Amino acid sequence: MFKTIEWLDRGVRMIDQRVLPTREVYKTFRGYKEVAGAIQDMVIRGAPAIGVAGAMGIALGASKINTEEIKAFTKDFKKIVRHVAGARPTAVNLGWAARRMEALFEANKDKPTAEIKKILIAEARKMHDEDVLINKKIGANGARLLKKNSTVLTHCNAGALATAGYGTALGVIRGAIEKGKNIKVFADETRPFLQGARLTAWELKKDGIDVTLIADNMAGHMMQQGLIDAVVVGADRIASNGDACNKIGTYTVAVLAKAHKIPFYVAAPLSTIDMDIKTGAEIPIEERSIKEITHMAGKRLAPTGINVRNPVFDVTPAKLITAIITEKGVVKKPFKAGIKALFEKKKKKKTGNKK
Amino acid sequence: MFKTIEWLDRGVRMIDQRVLPTREVYKTFRGYKEVAGAIQDMVIRGAPAIGVAGAMGIALGASKINTEEIKAFTKDFKKIVRHVAGARPTAVNLGWAARRMEALFEANKDKPTAEIKKILIAEARKMHDEDVLINKKIGANGARLLKKNSTVLTHCNAGALATAGYGTALGVIRGAIEKGKNIKVFADETRPFLQGARLTAWELKKDGIDVTLIADNMAGHMMQQGLIDAVVVGADRIASNGDACNKIGTYTVAVLAKAHKIPFYVAAPLSTIDMDIKTGAEIPIEERSIKEITHMAGKRLAPTGINVRNPVFDVTPAKLITAIITEKGVVKKPFKAGIKALFEKKKKKKTGNKK
């Protein structure tokens, strides 16, 4: 199996998701600016994966700070954190990872800088391993929701490639298959970046999971034909009321699922839930270059001189979501109370990590 | 302005829609097999346009039959009709055009073959000019339905390029603008063939109409943001109950429009209505090469060894349609009675052309 992201002593190694599925290329980034650039340029994407990448980028940057004097070290460290955290605006995990690294730094400021560096590196590596474990729990929790023989539609890539490994939405599918269920997958190609065609289809095929690729605009037709039993998607940020921000097109799939009475599940770790925001309306929606729409493989597809929109995410209101699948359990309506309870459960168990 | 299709004495000239919008290339097809090939290969597409192309292809074929003996001529003529009519399966207009040419032939069989050839050519040219007039009537009828300042979402290309000129769905937009209304357009790019990005955006820009290109999966988000006031699409075949078969993705847009209480209009000539079928369930849905999904501009986008679906059309049930806009008037629910009345009106007026 491939590794989405890995800590090496010489840097942070990632599979370059921009050249998949035709080439499996690994790149090692040797400085925090390079890691932030990789996040920005979408060498790595997916909310949990960029959280881990962010933490590793910060640890990498810290490990190369060239002073043992704590005041100067702090100044450099904060600069690194700010730079990495600003690489992409929508996913909450990047900010979450940055805050976690910063809190750890604050708690260990009295130690020698060599020690602090080791602690930060260990933490970033721990976040990687934790993420895989979290995904496996999400998978086990979500597996129960899928029927024995069923076909699941997914949008974008919330898979091993979007996380440290295993995946959230695809983790639910892997979890169900591990429980002996016969799950087939329909993957929306997910324009414009084609995460579905390039990444989801690739990683499911690598795992021997039956996958059928469709264009985004075919999802309604497939539901109308009775071919889809459930929808499972990931999330880039979930508001405290359950509104879920995810890849552009997710909202359309949710409306379609509702119209066809098909359950619509969001699979995401607690780190994706932003308790500081009341609803999805507070989530900034990143717009990326219009070239992603007007060009493909370097070839112009659309005429010049027209308007183009390229919002990268949309918000699915909680009312269209059947359940949110987390590592701490499955939350159903009313989401606000259910989500709050998840965090309280977490506190009680003292499993940490709450921002 | 460009010409989608044109009769020349040396053959049938078409703008090559496969190379738009980057190149404006015209090709002249000198035999009926070449015209059928152009329909098959999507040099020309759009139900009304391929109806006209079919008629011209048949006239062209007939004009080159090398016998004056009517029995042999008939045999060759029927072969030509069968070949051209079989070029694409879903659009009703191709069959409609073929039957019209065949009926005309039957009615004139007693004439010398040189005379028959002239009659067939004149008919094909008449069908071209009729189509433009029909579209202008559709435009005028539909213009009334759009509010003075409004933004219309359209899917695929039901424009001048999909017809002999002016367009059906885009005809409605042109008609409204001619009436002094301020209409802006959102165009779905329409995967996989990108008729929206390549053709709709191109022809609207040529006309100076404000157009914003989006990926198909953004339509829901734009509606959610309150940016869309109405949807107008074309149709490839409409059943006698109002179910409308159109480019894949149209059904998804219709479901979205319903969920957002946005009117959803289908603009099409009577020749698109198939009174022989009761519902859309009887319409065969063409599937085209999966390469349209897995490749773009010669570059592979998806991994090998996966399943791919590529249905070209879907069926929007009549219940999701606010009104069908035809050259004979606007039909609302109940569609069955309204559509029947349209054809009776047509018969009474003796304007001909009913198959």
Total strand segments of chain A:
17
Oligomer: homodimer
Overall mean pLDDT of chain A stands at 95
Major sheet of chain A: size, sense and barrel closure? 7 strands, mixed
Structural class of chain A: alpha/beta
Strand content of chain A: 15-25%
- Largest interface, per-chain counts? A-B, 56 and 56 residues
Gyration radius of chain A (Cα, Å) is 20 Å
Number of DSSP helices of chain A? 11
Distance between the termini of chain A: 32 Å
What characteristic shape of chain A results from the CA principal axes? globular
**What letter string, H or E per element, gives the SSE order of chain A?**
EEEHHHHHEHEHEHEEEHEEHEEEEEEH
DSSP helix fraction of chain A: 40-55%
Name the poorly predicted regions of chain A.
351-355
Adjacency order of strands in the biggest sheet of chain A: 6-5-4-7-10-16-17
Description of the structure:
2 copies of one chain form a homodimer. Chain A is 41% helix and 18% strand. Chain A has 11 helices and 17 strands. Chain A is α/β, with parallel strands linked by helices and 355 residues long. Chain A starts with a strand and ends in a 6-residue tail after the last helix. Chain A has a 7-stranded mixed β-sheet, sandwiched between helices. A 4-stranded mixed β-sheet of chain A has the order 11-8-9-15, covered by helices on one side. A 3-stranded antiparallel β-sheet of chain A has the order 1-2-3. Chain A is globular, with a radius of gyration of 20 Å. Chains A and B meet through helix 7, strand 6, helix 8, helix 9 and strand 13 of A and helix 7, strand 6, helix 8, helix 9 and strand 13 of B. Strand 14 (307-308) of chain A pairs parallel with strand 6 (211-214) of chain B, so a sheet runs across the interface.
